[in-house]
Amino acid sequence: MPIQNTDISRIFNHIADLLEISGANAFRVRAYRNAARTVEDQSRSIVKMLEDGEDLAELPDIGKDLAEKIAEIAETGTLEMLDELEQKVPGELSKLLEIQQLGPKRVATLYHELGIESLEDLKKAAEDEKIRELEGFGKKTEQKILKELKRVQDSAKRTKLADAEQIVIPLCEYLQKIDGVKQVTIAGSYRRRRETVGDLDILVTCKKDSTVMERFTGYEDVTEVIAQGKTKSSIRLRSGLQVDLRVVPEVSYGAALYYFTGSKAHNVAVRKIAVKKNLKMNEYGVFKGKEDDEERVAGSDEEEVFASVGLAFIPPELRENRGEIEAAQEGCLPVLIDRSDIRGELHAHTHATDGRASLQEMVEAARSLGYSYLAITEHSQAVTVAKGLNRKRLEKQIEEIEKLTNEYGGFRILKGIEVDILKDGSLDLPDEVLAKLDFTICSVHSHFNLSADKQTERILRAMDNPYFNILGHPSGRLINEREAYPLNMEKIMKGAKERGVILELNAHPDRLDLNDHHCRMAKEMGIKIAINTDAHSTDGLNNMKYGIYQARRGWLSKDDVINTRRVAELLKFFKR
Ligand code: DGT
Ligand code: CA
Ligand code: CA
Ligand code: ZN
C-alpha cells in the first residue's frame, strides 16, 4: 500500500509533539509542523511526486533534510529518528496533548510529578483529585480535563470527511480495476457528506465470477478482516477506519444505493409512506402484491425508487428526516447550491502573515479556478503567532493590491482583513483603517472560555461597529479537536440580521463552521452566508467543496450565499 500524504503529515506532527514534550527548541518544533501542513496541502500524492523524480525540497517549508526524511518514510513507512525519539519520551505521553487544557509543558509536569504516561493514567489521577494539587492546575482545570477526556475518547471513533476521502478514493480506484467490476459507489454518511463518518459503505455491481470480495479483503492497507462473505465483507484499514463492501444485483442497485445511503431515520420515515401505499420497500427494491406473487415496481434506479413512493428525488445531503420528506411530497425541496455557483473567494491569507503563497500566486490560483474575484484577508495584529498586520503593514498591503489590480483587468482583488474581536468587543484595528477596505471578516481567536452570555455580548458589541461585515468561523469549533465556545447562536443570528452582518461558513474541513443546523437556521432567519476556504495556500482554495457539502446539508441555495454574486452585487452586501 503506497504511503499517503496523511501518513507523512501524521509522522511529522507526531515528531513535533515529541520534540515539544522533551523541551526541544521551538524553532525546530515549528519546522516539523509547517512541513506537515505543506504535505497535507498537496493535492497530489507526495510519493507519486517522488516517483516522478520531482525535487520535494522545492515545496514550501521542505528543505533538503525534510525531503530526505519524506523519502525515508516513502520507502520504509516510518523514520529512524521517530523511533529514537519515541524511546526518549515515555509511554503515550504525546497523546495527552489531545486534551485541550494540556500543552507540552503541562504534560511534562504531569509526567514528572505524578508519573502520568497515558490517557488512562490521566483519567485515574483526575478522578482521584490529584491533578488539582499540582501547581498551575487547580480544581477547575481538573474538571475540564475529565470532560475533555470523554470527548477525546468519543470523537476518536469518527473520521473527518476529508480524511475519509483521501483513504477511500484510492480504494475505489483499486476496486474499479478488478475484472468484472461494473459500478463502485460509496453510500452511507459519506454520500450524505456528513462532516465525519463512522465507517464507509461501498456498493459494487459486478459479473458473477468476479473476485472482488477476495481482492477487497486482500487490499494492502487492511489491518483486520472483520467479516468476509459472498455479498458482504468488512475490513479495517491502517487508519482504524472500517469499510463495509456489499455486492448487489443490478436489478437492486438503485434500491440498495438508496437504502445504504440512509440516514436510518430517513429510511424509516419513507418506509412508513411505502407501507401506507401497500408497498414493500427494502434494499432489493420496491414491491407490490402478495408475498408469493410479488411484482418489483422499482429497484435498479434510485430515482425510480423515489417515484414509486410518490417522492421527488431528494439529494443525499438532505436525507436526515429533517423535513425533506414532506418537502419532497409537496414538491418544494430547495434547489441546493452547487460548486459551480461560486464566483469568488472571500477569505485568504498570504505570505504577509501566516499564508504560504504570495499575493500574486494566490491571485493566479483563484483565476485558474475560474473565479472573478479574490479577497485578501490577513490576520490583524492581535494574532501575533500569525504575524498579524498592524495599521502600517495593512496600509502597505492595500497599496500593493491596488498596484496589482491594474495588472489584472477583469479580475478583482478585494481588500479585506480578518480582524480580531478583542475581549471587550472592540475590533483590533481603528475604524479609519477599516474604512479603507472593501469589507471585513471579524473573528474570535482568544478568550474562548467566557460564559455564553459574555461571549454573546462581546460579539454583538463588535457587530455594532458599522465596519463589521462577516462574522468569521462563528462557533470556533475544530472538529474532533475543540468544542464550540459557549455561545447563544440564536441571539448572534438575530443580531446579525438586524445589523446586516453576514455569517461565514468556513469551508476548512477541520472547521465547517457554521455547521449544517446553523446554516439552516440562518437561512430561515434570512441571513446571508459567505462560504470561505480561509486558504493559507493555493491548494487551500480547493477546500471550497467541503463548504458546499455543508451548505447543502444546511439547505442553502445559490441565493443564500453572497459569493455566488458578481462583484458589483457582492459589494452591496458590505454597505451597512
Ligand atoms: P456512520 O457510519 O455512523 O457515519 O453513519 P451511516 O449513516 O453511514 O450508518 P451505517 O454505516 O451504520 O449504515 C449505512 C446506512 O445503512 C444507513 O445510513 C442506513 C442504512 N441502515 C443501517 N441500518 C439500518 C436499519 O436498521 N434500518 C434501516 N432502515 N436502514 C439502516
Ligand atoms: Ca457508514
Ligand atoms: Ca456501515
Ligand atoms: Zn483566516
TrEMBL record:
Helix-hairpin-helix DNA-binding motif class domain residues: 54-73, 94-113, 129-148
GO molecular function annotations of the record: class I DNA-(apurinic or apyrimidinic site) endonuclease activity; DNA binding; DNA-directed DNA polymerase activity; phosphoric ester hydrolase activity; zinc ion binding
All residue ranges annotated as the Polymerase/histidinol phosphatase N-terminal domain in the record: 344-423
Segments forming domain DNA-directed DNA polymerase X: 3-320
Keyword set, alphabetical order: DNA damage, DNA repair, DNA replication, DNA synthesis, DNA-directed DNA polymerase, Methylation, Nucleotidyltransferase, Sodium, Transferase, Ubl conjugation
GO BP term, pick one: DNA repair
UniProt-listed Enzyme Commission number(s): 2.7.7.7, 4.2.99.18
Keyword Cell membrane: no
Cofactor: Mg(2+)
Superkingdom as given in the UniProt entry: Bacteria
GO CC terms: cytosol
InterPro entries: DNA-dir_DNA_pol_X, DNA_pol_B_palm_palm, DNA_pol_lamdba_lyase_dom_sf, DNA_Pol_thumb_sf, DNA_pol_X, DNA_pol_X_beta-like, HHH_MUS81, Hlx-hairpin-Hlx_DNA-bd_motif
Reaction catalyzed: DNA(n) + a 2'-deoxyribonucleoside 5'-triphosphate = DNA(n+1) + diphosphate; a 5'-end 2'-deoxyribose-2'-deoxyribonucleotide-DNA = (2E,4S)-4-hydroxypenten-2-al-5-phosphate + a 5'-end 5'-phospho-2'-deoxyribonucleoside-DNA + H(+); 2'-deoxyribonucleotide-(2'-deoxyribose 5'-phosphate)-2'-deoxyribonucleotide-DNA = a 3'-end 2'-deoxyribonucleotide-(2,3-dehydro-2,3-deoxyribose 5'-phosphate)-DNA + a 5'-end 5'-phospho-2'-deoxyribonucleoside-DNA + H(+)
Gene3D superfamilies found in the cross-reference section: 5' to 3' exonuclease, C-terminal subdomain, Beta Polymerase, domain 2, DNA polymerase beta, N-terminal domain-like, DNA polymerase, thumb domain, Metal-dependent hydrolases
Chief location bin: cytoplasm
Pfam families: DNA_pol_B_palm (PF14792), DNA_pol_B_thumb (PF14791), HHH_5 (PF14520), HHH_8 (PF14716), PHP (PF02811)
Subcellular location: Cytoplasm
Protein's job: Repair polymerase that plays a key role in base-excision repair. During this process, the damaged base is excised by specific DNA glycosylases, the DNA backbone is nicked at the abasic site by an apurinic/apyrimidic (AP) endonuclease, and POLB removes 5'-deoxyribose-phosphate from the preincised AP site acting as a 5'-deoxyribose-phosphate lyase (5'-dRP lyase); through its DNA polymerase activity, it adds one nucleotide to the 3' end of the arising single-nucleotide gap.
UniProt-listed PANTHER family: PHOSPHATASE YCDX-RELATED
UniProt name for this protein: DNA polymerase beta
